[in-house]
Amino acid sequence: MAELRIRTMTPKNFLSLVVSISLSTAAMAQKSTPIVINTDQLTAKVQPTMWGVFFEDINLGGDGGLYAEMVKNRSFEFTTPLMGWSVKGSKLSEGDVLVLNRGKESPNNPRFLRVNVKNATAKGDVTLTNEGFRGMGIKKGLSYQFSLMYRQAARGIKIHADLLDEQGNSIGSTVLTPSLTGDTWHKADIKFTATEGAQKGKLQLWMEGNGRIDLDMISLFPGDTWKGRAGGLRADMVQMLADMKPGFVRFPGGCIVEGRDLANRYQWKKTIGPIEDRETIINRWNTEFKHRATPDYFQSFGLGFFEYFQMAEDIGAEPLPIINCGMACQYNTAELVPMDELGAYVQDALDLIEFANGDVNTTWGKKRAEMGHPAPFHLKMMGVGNENWGPQYLERLAVFTKAIKAKYPDFKIVNSSGTDPNGARFDLLNTALRQSKADLIDEHYYREPEWFLSNASRYDSYDRNGSKVFAGEYAAQSKGTSSPLTQNNWKSAMAEAAFMTGLERNAGVVNMASYAPLFANVEGWQWTPDMIWVDNLHIYGTPNYYVQKLYSLNKGTDVVSITRDGQPLAGKDSLYASAVIDQKAGQLIVKIVNAANKVQQQDIKLNGTKKPAGAGKLYAMADNDVNAVNNFEKTRNVAPAEEKFSAKGRDLKLSLKPYSFTVIRLPLK
Ligand code: AHR
Fold first, then answer.
1. In Å, what is the CA distance from 348 to each residue of 304, 308, 385, 406, 552?
2. Rounded to whole angstroms, what are the CA distances from 272 to 105, 268, 279?
């Protein structure tokens, strides 16, 4: 119950009462002119691809994240071969556990572990323990799939697998008895259930018996992967993406496409086929930021191009692979492949299209079918280069474009405009790419929130008939780009929401957009801000995630005119607005940001042949504290609240909360 307070009127507070009455009277008198939406004026089509997601294996987003493998360094291919493992045992002597290299026989996966076991009878005699990716998240009652590859001359060893909790107690165990012998490698696996849960568990193997055994690909997967696929993806992470119904999935990056040097570039052909043949390499984010060095960050490629295509298909999104253009990261080595050696890179691009779409009788289509997907993935577009720039980029891009268009004339190519949305590098590329009638130009913006607010009209003046824009990477930076202090706070998300009204209003120019980066592990990140944060068991979406989701779920099919005083609303009175119609659903969708620290009463008048027909919905995100964030404890601290909403005839009466983003859906007839 509200407390009733009676205060004596002093001259001072009387004066403030008078001032506040006259201010509110003035505010009422100054009520702004209505916004006008004309539902007959369709200004552009919204492409089905408009709002998508950008995935890169950064911040333990892939290995240690989306890829559900729980064992770190399962094949001993990290630079330090036993990183992540601890080898102990009272019955072990010097030389009983060796890292061997069978490079000739298996060049992509050369190392394995040789273990000599002598009269081992108990836990503690010979143990190998894996720490996982910042521990292993173990769920009580869940089934786990333990597997490995082995080679032994004779039978004689049993391998016990124990899940350990933080105190070292066993919380689930099984025994695997390698039964086959000889010179060849065999696979073995077994399922078992966790009896308790742990946030930071471990996997401990202990040996019983006598003999010598070679081990490789020691693996543990939870039984609750996305779609229950063995060796699959973390379901909660894919679900967050599926919930957004994204128009596309861009993969595998980002700078990871470029590599620190060309040897470190992303090579899709090395990421398909049996996982034991996919070569593990260092992740470029391992060493990128000294202040966030991650020495245990490698790419196992268990999540490879087949899995990316499959995930995109699962969630109804168009696949958008980005391919190396013959240039390594220009912030790092800036290595260039000579023009007369570019052919192999171009062939990789052509083969990728065949891998995705080719008939099962083609070389690469057959490989896709062998991996379990005879039907094509219907790939329609590809990016050539990530953040590459300069005449060297244009020279290489031209070769790719010619070859791809010669074979696949309707295939769309995404072109890089470099690292920044302005400046000499951008101008050089943007001018040249527009002259060459590029299909799509990828623009990146990592800027302060104020930049996003003041660029809400960036595309109002772009040529409607020229190359289309892919806003391929963007995120408002609360404390500066690459600063570890930057947060996914409400100020950044609200600024993005405001900027996105400009993308939507200009959907005739901007055909695709994606926030970046997508995922981060709270303990293993290199780059912040990120859209979705995880630990080994939990997940939460940032305010930025909910902004993206609101746009994506309310995409509509056609942009309609929305103006105040005849002008687009792109910052005047701190208001930003766009509107679309969803022709299939027969609904009008209005998006409005109030970036001011006060309530704004704003009427909207609907013109056009169609009228509001019945109740709709209003989704509002708002917080008086622009520094508010979400976290594991308060996963929806800043998230949309839903309520019913009705128009009064052709009028919409809105009371826009301070610092708010509002989406309205109204049926029309
Ligand atoms: O999103 C993080 C990085 O930012 C991407 O890898 C790169 O393209 C950009 O510089």
1. 15, 17, 13, 15, 32
2. 19, 7, 10
Ligand 1 atom nearest the C-alpha of 446 is 4
Q: What is the pLDDT of residues 162-207, one digit of tens each?
A: 999 999 999 999 999 999 999 999 999 999 999 999 999 999 999 9
Closest C-alpha to ligand 1, atom 1: 517
What distances in angstroms separate CA 583 from CA 45, 555, 610, 660, 667, one per listed residue?
11, 11, 12, 27, 10
Catalytic status, residue 387: yes
Closest Cα to atom 7, ligand 1: which residue?
Answer: 254
Q: What is 85-222's CATH number, 2.60.120.260, 3.20.20.20, 1.10.1060.10, 2.40.260.10?
A: 2.60.120.260
Contact (Cβ atoms closer than 8 angstroms) between residue 145 and residue 221: yes
Ligand 1 pocket check for 288: Cβ under 6 Å: no
pLDDT, one tens digit per residue, over 149-163 is: 999 999 999 999 999
CATH code of the domain made up of 53-69+226-263+276-354+372-555: 3.20.20.80
Sign of the dihedral defined by the CA atoms of residues 363, 367, 370, 373, in that order: negative
CATH topology for 31-45+561-667 is: Immunoglobulin-like (2.60.40)
**pLDDT at residue 39 in the model:** 96
Nearest alpha carbon to residue 502 among 593, 576, 606, 562: 576
Query: Of 420, 405, 483, which Cα lies nearest the Cα of 455?
Result: 420
Q: Which ligand 1 atom is at minimum distance from the Cα of 387?
A: 8
HSE-up of residue 58 (Cα within 13 Å, Cβ side):
28
Cis peptide before 48 (omega within 30 of 0): no
Number of H helices, E strands in the chain: 11, 32
What's phi and psi for 448, nearest 5 deg? -70, 155
